[in-house]
Design goal:
single chain; 6-stranded parallel β-sheet; 12 strands; Aldehyde Oxidoreductase, domain 3
């Protein structure tokens, strides 16, 4: 998913504008002259990683095709307090009508990219890759996973349809780990299977089935280290559950292959960005 799908961008922006605009900005219509023009800049008020420019462009395009958007930076660029990300020029009523919707996309996606970059920076010296998860806002998954990738993470499965990941509830409903693994490997023999394990005993069972990856759920860093030694080269090791920036180094030092982090998408704070008018005519 190196780029966002233009059709998806169009659709999600249409939905956002239907929520906020509905064909009229009463304040802009009441205050601004019909032919008045203006130029505004999107400015960072904090440090982070920029993401979401294509969404901002599409917001202004749908409002007024004559509005011109110029990028001063690109997605993935580092931001500092005062960095100017883009410039918007056109009829003032359209520029201001799109301000909040454009910023909502930019702040949300830049927030995800920025938090992800912090996790990636801590894990990199240990050779551990950061993964995102399916803990995303409904309808925005591909956008949020794009932002995580811009921040340096690797995208995990996009949905239930593209990978087998046996988790605790599957195991409990299937009647145990052996039963779940047996059915999965029989029904999808050509598919790699990943399985979540909750103990050393479940780990040994999973390895006995030759799974491609084991997911250590809520293990302590010490338990991860023991598990990694036990697994050796038999499978990839992923860690998940309870990982925060404060304890990330301890988990990464245990040398799993991957650490998956739900908070990248479900808890990333929005990056502080603003749009300020710099010229009017």
């Amino acid at each position: 998913m190196s780029q966002l799908d233009p059709a998806e961008i169009t659709a999600v922006v249409e939905l956002a504008l239907a929520e906020d605009y509905r064909g009229i900005d009463l304040t802009g219509d009441a205050v601004l002259e019909a032919g008045q023009r203006g130029t505004a800049q999107v400015i960072a008020r904090d440090s982070g990683v920029l993401c979401g420019l294509a969404l901002a462009h599409e917001v202004f395009r749908q409002l007024d095709t004559s509005i011109e958007c110029s990028d001063l930076l690109q997605d993935g660029a580092p931001l500092g307090d005062g960095s100017v990300a883009m410039r918007v020029t056109g009829r003032a009523v359209g520029v201001l009508a799109g301000e909040r919707t454009a910023l909502n996309f930019l702040q949300h996606l830049s927030g995800i990219a920025s938090l992800t970059a912090q996790f990636v920076e801590v894990a990199r010296p240990f050779g551990v890759e950061i993964l995102d998860t399916r803990k995303t806002v409904p309808g925005l998954r591909r956008l949020e996973k794009y932002a995580a990738r811009i921040g340096g993470a690797r995208n995990h499965r996009m949905g239930l349809y593209d990978a087998i990941l046996i988790k605790d509830n599957h195991v409990d409903l299937a009647g145990g780990l052996e039963a779940a693994l047996g059915r999965a490997t029989r029904r999808y023999p050509a598919r790699e299977v990943e399985v979540e394990v909750r103990s050393q005993a479940e780990l040994a069972t999973a390895l006995g089935f030759g799974v491609g990856r084991v997911l250590l759920d809520n293990f302590t860093p010490a338990q991860v280290r023991e598990a990694v030694a036990l697994v050796g080269n038999q499978a990839e090791v992923e860690v998940s559950g309870g990982v925060r920036l404060e304890n990330l180094a301890a988990y990464a030092a245990a040398r799993p292959n991957y650490i998956s982090v739900g908070r990248l998408t479900h808890s990333a704070p929005a990056l502080d960005l603003a749009m300020k008018v710099v010229a009017a005519s």
